[in-house]
Design a protein that fits this description.
heterodimer; A: 358 residues; alpha/beta; Rossmann fold; 2 domains; 5-stranded parallel β-sheet; two-stranded antiparallel sheet; 13 helices; 7 strands; globular; B: 325 residues; 7-stranded mixed β-sheet; 5-stranded mixed β-sheet; 12 helices; 12 strands; 38% helix
Chain lengths: 358, 325
């Protein structure tokens, strides 16, 4: 492993980070490693034709999901786009149900009905998993509206990519968020590319993408995303704003994805140089940066790291075995989970014809 | 007699009282009292939390309502015109209709999106869409199109209490039309979604319609009786999805003839589905082909006298029935 060029985090002294126990810091390490190993296993089995469709990998961006989610409480809710595996594991979904979903199996988190882009766990305040770019951004203010309507102290953390900022739905959401004082935090995971188009070829902006918030009077911040201490420090400020003032924030976090937009991205190494990818891996890898930080703090040693890593690899391998051995859904189950009232066999679900195939 | 708009107003008012999670959101629904006065007086009675004016931002506020419904709020969203649904289409289809399925049944969206969906008011193609066929094409959605005040009242209450997304399509021409007014009892009641109703008994032909076309069919039936000696039965679908096929088929088995009256454009309109069902289920009972009266197949024309001819009207229905021979 290369020692990252970046200096040790100046955000280690942030109050929210000073509060961290050593064991909690190790947990952050473990969660990031678990995501990395899950994604690597996903790629392996995708390439072995075990799954269909798209596979948008989170490798390189792990510090953002893990850092932000680590601060969430009982009434904080998460929603994201289609690069959703990292957030899913960060909120506590199991590798088994996630991997089985990728395999299209009945034991998947969505019973094989959602696929890679559509993971959900409302019992863990995780509302997906959304395939249409920026389509989740109005839902994000909806969650915030619901939190506020019910009189709860909470926030909606709505993740989006840098490619989503030019969709109208996002701008409509920003207007409503500020107009109605909604406790939403828009977290732009800026990995530099909306599929194959770089930020400067896709977005008109001054300073940063988050700065667009100024037009709406929304508090904004642009920060680095590879340092989990920094992610936590910036997220904490936004959470405080949401919890104490019911006010929105746009938080843009610079990050980098090592893989293509999806595994089906044939040009993944054409719209950027191999040197650029290597530069990020060598210097800004969130796992390496955190490992280095914790070793300097004498919280982590190489043996512990290796143990965590081998456990994560084993967990991912076992998840693939679980997925492999699980059954596919039955054809008769295709029409389950369409209507609540039909599924629950209520009076409302028993009137008239709901399905029109022969 | 209670007008269609007042029946809706009463249903909304009662449901605001029935459940604290019900919130009305839309353009001009609060301080302005509703562009078509359906929500008149509700903001004054219920206040800012329960009746909320939204900016002109359909994708944003409809999507917001869908998100809030996932957390258990029960938003009743007004589209000033249902034609504006097209601005919010991604939210209404990809999110509201699909999220339950894609989550394997973990999430549901108890949302109502209501507003007028009709032609005939000389506002041109952009404001005259009848998208009930588009939305009924999507599993996960329910589509309700009431033709009179009583049905509008009872179905709106059921729509708000339903735990699936219900797209509730009204009609600006019916809001104040005495022909669509009803006697409403003092006591509250609901009507089940997915239940059609025979609005006029007859023996010679079944006129099968929804929304304002039911009013047209009833007038046509009267004229057919008086002028042609034809005794037409009128079936009001009331709900497009779920669909009460039993009532439709029972009527056709009784009369052996069907004319479908449908303000949709003909290609894959609601009547296309009804026609497919009739020929499949009761082919041997038919004495004539199933015919349709739909809108003339062009974007809605502005010109007032021509628009009357473009959408189904009494003259066109009578003429089509007489073609059956």
């Amino acid at each position: 492993m290369n020692t990252p060029l970046v200096e040790l985090s100046k955000y280690a002294q942030a109050e929210v980070n000073l509060q961290l126990e050593a064991e909690e810091k190790i947990t952050l390490m473990r969660e990031m490693i678990r995501i990395r190993r899950f994604e690597e296993a996903s790629l392996k089995y995708y390439n072995a034709d075990k799954m269909g469709g798209f596979l948008h990998l989170y490798i390189g961006q792990e510090s953002i999901a893990v850092g932000t989610v680590s601060l969430c409480g009982e009434n904080d809710h998460i929603i994201t786009a289609y690069r959703d595996h990292g957030h899913a594991l960060a909120v506590g979904m199991g590798m088994n149900e996630c991997m089985a979903e990728l395999f299209g199996k009945a034991t998947g988190c969505s019973k094989g009905k959602g696929g890679s882009m559509h993971f959900f766990a409302p019992d863990k305040n995780y509302w997906g998993g959304h395939g249409i770019v920026a389509g989740q951004t109005p839902l994000g203010i909806g969650l915030a509206y619901g939190i506020k309507y019910k009189g709860l102290t909470g926030a909606s953390l709505c993740f989006l990519g840098d490619g989503a900022v030019n969709q109208g739905a996002f701008h409509e959401s920003l207007n409503l968020a500020e107009l109605w004082d909604l406790p939403v935090i828009y977290i732009i995971e800026n990995n530099g590319y909306s599929m194959g188009t770089s930020q400067k070829r896709s977005s008109a902006f001054k300073g940063s993408l988050a700065q667009r918030g100024e037009a709406y009077g929304i508090a904004w911040e642009s920060a680095k995303g590879h340092d989990i201490y920094e992610v936590r420090a910036k997220t904490k400020a936004a959470l405080d704003r949401a919890h104490r003032e019911n006010r929105p924030t746009i938080l843009e976090l610079a990050t980098y994805r090592y893989q293509g937009h999806s595994v089906a991205d044939a040009n993944a190494k054409k719209y950027r140089t191999p040197e650029e990818i290597v530069h990020h891996k060598d210097n800004f890898d969130p796992l390496n940066v955190w490992k280095n930080q914790l070793m300097q703090e004498n919280v982590l040693d190489e043996d512990t790291y290796r143990k965590i890593d081998s456990e994560a690899k084993a967990e991912a391998r076992q998840a693939a075995e679980f997925a492999e051995q699980s059954p596919y859904p039955e054809i008769s189950e295709i029409t389950d989970d369409v209507y609540f009232e039909v599924d629950k066999k209520t009076n409302a679900g028993s009137q008239g014809r709901h399905f029109f195939h022969d | 007699m209670t007008l269609y708009r007042h029946a809706l107003n009463r249903a909304l008012d009662e449901e605001l009282a029935h459940d604290d999670n019900v919130v009305i959101i839309g353009e001009e629904v609060a301080e302005y009292d509703g562009a078509y006065k359906v929500t008149e007086g509700l903001w004054k009675k219920w206040g800012d939390k329960r009746v909320v004016d939204a900016p002109i931002s359909e994708a944003g506020f409809i999507g917001m309502g869908i998100g809030a419904s996932m957390l258990g709020v029960r938003p009743v969203m007004e589209l000033m015109f249902y034609s504006f649904a097209y601005v919010a289409f991604d939210q209404m289809i990809n999110n509201a209709a699909c999220v339950r399925y894609m989550s394997g049944g973990l999430i549901n969206c108890p949302i109502v999106v209501r507003g007028p969906a009709n032609g005939g008011t000389n506002v041109g193609a952009t404001h005259s869409h009848t998208p009930e066929n588009l939305f009924a094409n999507m599993p996960g959605l329910k589509v309700v199109v009431p033709s009179n005040a009583r049905d509008a009242y009872g179905l709106m209450k059921s729509a708000i209490r339903d735990n699936d997304p219900v797209y509730f399509m009204e009609n600006t021409l019916l809001y104040g039309d005495p022909a669509a007014a009803s006697e409403l009892p003092e006591e509250e009641f609901t009507l089940p979604i997915g239940s059609a109703e025979v609005k006029r008994q007859g023996t010679d032909v079944s006129l099968i319609a929804h929304g304002r076309s039911v009013i047209v069919a009833l007038e046509a039936a009267k004229q057919l009786q008086e002028e042609k000696g034809v005794d037409a039965e009128v079936v009001d679908l009331r709900s497009i999805r779920p669909l009460d096929e039993e009532t439709i088929l029972n009527s056709v088995v009784k009369t052996n003839r069907a004319v479908l009256i449908d303000e949709n454009k003909p290609f894959c309109g609601v009547s296309s589905q009804i026609a497919a069902t009739i020929q499949q289920e009761v082919f041997d009972d038919l004495d004539a082909p199933v015919l349709r009266v739909t809108s003339i197949d062009a974007p809605a024309i502005y010109s007032p006298p021509l628009e009357k001819e473009q959408i189904p009207n009494v003259g066109r229905v009578v003429e089509k029935v007489m073609q059956l021979g």
